[in-house]
Each structure stands twice: as C-alpha cells, then as structure tokens.
Design brief:
single chain, mainly alpha, Secreted protein, transmembrane helix, transmembrane, membrane
C-alpha cells in the first residue's frame, strides 16, 4: 500500500478506515429511521391537534370529585398570570 509506513501501521489505518465507514453507515441509517419516525409523529400531532407542550400529559375526561378545587378570583388571576409568564419564556 504505502512504502513509507510499516505493516502494523497499514493494518491500523485499514481498521480505522473500516470503523469510520461502519460508523458513517450506521449514523446514516439512524438518521433516516429517525426522520421517518418524526414524520409519523408530526402527522399524528396534526390529526389530533394537541399542543406541543401537552403531548406527554395523559388526558382526563372528567376530574375526580376529590381532586376538584374551586379557586377564588384572586387565585384564578394568579394562576392565569403564572401560565402567561411560563408561556412567554418558551
């Protein structure tokens, strides 16, 4: 192969080259698979019209009576302000 380097260096270079090619092929396959999964995920989000920040939260159809809390007007306003402030930072 090369006259200036030893056989051990040639073997090391070959092993490094094969590892690099295997890594590039594996990365390309991984990215291609992820691109397909992301496309499927986006389509399911469009169909369900679920906001992005609520994807991981399980849905409840009706709150449990024990978990229901009636808020005063001040508490309701404070909660609305908190939600506004958190949504502005995103």
């Amino acid at each position: 192969m090369f006259d200036q380097i030893s056989v051990v260096q040639q073997i090391g270079l070959t092993v490094l080259l094969v590892a690099t090619v295997a890594w590039v092929v594996g990365l390309a396959r991984l990215l291609r698979r992820d691109r397909f999964e992301i496309a499927v995920w986006r389509e399911s989000r469009r169909a369900g019209a679920v906001p992005a920040h609520l994807d991981g939260i399980p849905r409840q159809s009706v709150p449990h009576p024990i978990e229901r809390v009636d808020l005063t007007e001040e508490e309701h306003a404070a909660f609305a302000g908190l939600v506004r402030r958190l949504s502005e930072t995103r």
